[in-house]
């Protein structure tokens, strides 16, 4: 799936202490579990601000959700997504939220129709709990 870049100092704070460094592999697995993304059988390695994830998932959407859940945490600048999907689909695009963005605005830019914002919301569940709860620096999946 490849390398995905994130904003290192923006994202979910999942552990106490020094927020400038990435969480440990175990803490990141707990974060995946919190979102209902099965971390069992995944190999997660943290090297500074880079996370490498390997293993198998049922589909491409799950592999992409795992990558963005890992990357949207404080201290992570890159995720090298080496997950293999049993049912490979077209890979999504990724979009980094900027100040003033809404899912409707992003949908208008990406799809030409602001009313398609629910496609983006659904593609990013369970990491997004509400269509209005996005923040600058957050990386979102944009399905094709």
Total domains: 2
CATH fold-level label of the largest domain: Histidine-containing Protein, Chain: A
Helicity level, as a percent range?
25-40%
Overall CATH architecture of the largest domain: 2-Layer Sandwich
Number of helices: 4
Element string (H = helix, E = strand):
EHEEHEEHHE
What low-confidence regions span 5 or more consecutive residues with pLDDT below 50?
none
Number of strands: 6
What percentage of the residues does DSSP assign to strands (E)?
25-35%
Q: Over the alpha carbons, how many angstroms does the gyration radius reach?
A: 14 Å
Termini distance? 15 Å
Q: What's the CATH class of the largest domain, please?
A: Alpha Beta
Instruction: Output mean pLDDT.
Output: 90
Strand order of the largest sheet: 1-4-3-2
Helix/sheet category? alpha+beta
Largest sheet: 4 strands, mixed
Q: Tell me which oligomeric state these chains represent.
A: single chain
| Apparent shape | globular
Keywords: Cytoplasm
Subcellular location: Cytoplasm
InterPro entries: Bact_Kbp, BON_dom, LysM, LysM_dom_sf
Pfam families: BON (PF04972), LysM (PF01476)
For the structure shown, list the relevant keywords.
144 residues; alpha+beta; Histidine-containing Protein, Chain: A; Membrane-bound Lytic Murein Transglycosylase D, Chain A; 2 domains; four-stranded mixed β-sheet; two-stranded antiparallel ribbon; 4 helices; 6 strands; 26% strand; Bact_Kbp; LysM; cytoplasm
Which helices and strands occur, and which strands form pairs?
Blueprint: E1 2-5, H1 25-34, E2 43-47, E3 50-59, H2 60-71, E4 78-87, E5 93-96, H3 103-111, H4 117-123, E6 139-142
Parallel strand pairs: 3-4
Antiparallel strand pairs: 1-4, 2-3, 5-6
Helix pairs in contact: 3-4
């Amino acid at each position: 799936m490849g390398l995905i870049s994130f904003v290192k100092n923006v994202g979910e704070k999942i552990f106490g202490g020094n927020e400038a460094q990435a969480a440990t592999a175990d803490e990141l697995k707990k974060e995946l579990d919190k979102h209902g993304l099965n971390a069992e059988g995944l190999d997660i390695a943290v090297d500074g601000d880079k996370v490498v994830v390997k293993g198998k998932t049922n589909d491409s959407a799950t592999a992409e959700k795992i990558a963005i859940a890992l990357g949207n945490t404080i201290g992570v600048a890159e995720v090298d997504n080496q997950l293999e999907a049993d049912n490979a689909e077209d890979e999504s695009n990724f979009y980094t939220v900027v100040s003033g963005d809404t899912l409707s605005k992003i949908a208008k830019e990406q799809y030409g129709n602001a009313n398609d914002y629910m496609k983006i919301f659904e593609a990013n569940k369970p990491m997004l709990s509400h269509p209005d709860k996005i923040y600058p620096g957050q990386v979102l999946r944009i399905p094709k």
